[in-house]
Amino acid sequence: MTEETKKFFTQTELDQIITDRLARQKKGYEDKLGNLRDEVLAEANKVKLEEQQKYKELYEEAGKSLSELEPLRGRVGDYEKYFERVLEERLKELGDSAKQAVKHLGTSFDKLDWLEANKELFAPKGSGVGTPRPGGKQQKGEPERKLRLPSI
Known about the structure:
Helices cover 66% and strands 3% of the residues.
């Protein structure tokens, strides 16, 4: 190249060339960033929809389970009434000491269970029902009675 064919640029022209080049570069990066943002949002929406579907399925399963258990609700109530009736009869048979012994236990079933496990405490012993020996002493040959407390 000779001096005549060489092209010279003014500072303004160079500034404009650089500005145009940077603008094109910036637009390319903005396009890439926009595409990445769209991909991330699409993936986030996909995950959100999948989780919503899972929760929906769990909700439906729970609803089915509850509807299957609904008929049993009445039966459970019937059993509780039965246990209460049996407990009342048992307490009438055993007396006030048995009533006092189980008053702090939870359900009728727990009370009946404890009474059954400790029925020997309320069985008649010679002179009365569950009355302790005078002086709290045990007679010779009589086994030591141990109280079985319910677990809490």
